[in-house]
Write a structure and sequence with these properties.
Belongs to the short-chain dehydrogenases/reductases (SDR) family. The chain is α/β, with parallel strands linked by helices. Helix content is about 45%, strand content about 15%. The protein has helices at about 25-35, 50-60, 75-90, 110-135, 150-155, 160-180, 195-200, 210-215, 225-235, and strands at about 15-20, 40-45, 65-70, 95, 140-145, 185-190, 245-250. A 7-stranded parallel β-sheet has the order 3-2-1-4-5-6-7, sandwiched between helices. The protein is globular and about 50 Å long.
């Protein structure tokens, strides 16, 4: 930075909750918001160690963060998560609904359990966390929902997962209009293929499937979690004050 030029953090003084932030894209979003000056509640469902590591990285860089366990598909836990942010930091300005399950099944293999498992977290979780947050968000508040570019590419075996993300897009548009009179913005970031712990665990990273995704990507590489985090930080900030109801596809050009 040139001497004498002070950098003004986009989110200085703001408080954010990021659901599903113990790893992958969620962890990068939490770190990115903290880098821009926000105090961050790092939510996790089961990986306390992962969430604690994210908090440690944020505090080591001079930021503020706490880890809070909670299953957003349970109303009481979603409410407690938001209340924890208000109790710890005194307010709430940003909610990032990142929690999500990623699981594919061919039409012959779809079960009620598979359907409910994905829809409870990916869709009901967005509704319950947004419901809890809306009680505390004021003018200038921002909700950012993480969807997926899979809604546009019709990947075989992804009917249920793609269905959850299509629902997230529709819900976001409705909430954008519903909360607009209160000057609360609601937008969507729709990532393309991003290399995370999840893609490694699923055997996609380094596979022919990944090579196929990259081959279709005009910018010629797989996404990184921070590619998504930077877009979220923008939408969470006042720089995006005239944006609501938008779906921003962050995919390196895949459509």
């Amino acid at each position: 930075m040139p001497k004498g030029l002070a950098y003004m953090s986009k989110l200085a003084g703001k408080v954010a909750v990021v659901t599903g932030a113990s790893k992958g894209i969620g962890a990068a979003i939490a770190k990115g918001l903290a880098k821009e000056g926000a105090a961050v509640v790092v939510n996790y469902a089961s990986s306390k160690a992962g969430a604690d590591a994210v908090v440690a990285a944020i505090t080591a860089s001079g930021g503020k963060a706490v880890a809070v366990q909670g299953d957003v598909s349970q109303a009481a836990q979603a409410q407690a998560l938001v209340e924890a942010a208000v109790t710890q930091f005194g307010r709430l300005d940003v909610l990032v609904n990142n929690s999500g399950l990623y699981e594919f099944a061919a039409i012959e293999a779809i079960t009620e359990a598979h359907y409910h498992k994905l829809f409870d977290v990916n869709v009901l979780g967005v509704l319950l966390a947004s419901q809890a947050a809306a009680k505390h968000l004021g003018e200038g508040g921002s909700i950012v929902n993480i969807s997926s570019a899979i809604t546009d590419v019709n990947t075989p075996t992804a009917a249920v997962y793609a269905g959850t993300k299509g629902a997230v897009n529709a819900i976001s548009g409705v909430l954008a209009n519903e909360l607009a009179p209160r000057k609360i913005r609601v937008n969507v970031v729709s990532p393309g293929y991003v290399v995370t712990e999840g893609t490694h665990a699923a055997g996609i990273a380094g596979s022919e499937m990944e090579a196929g995704f990259v081959a279709q990507t005009p910018l010629g590489r797989a996404g990184r979690p921070d590619d998504i985090a930077d877009v979220v930080a923008f939408l969470a900030s006042d720089e995006a004050r005239w944006l609501t109801g938008e779906v921003i596809t962050a995919s390196g050009g895949i459509h």
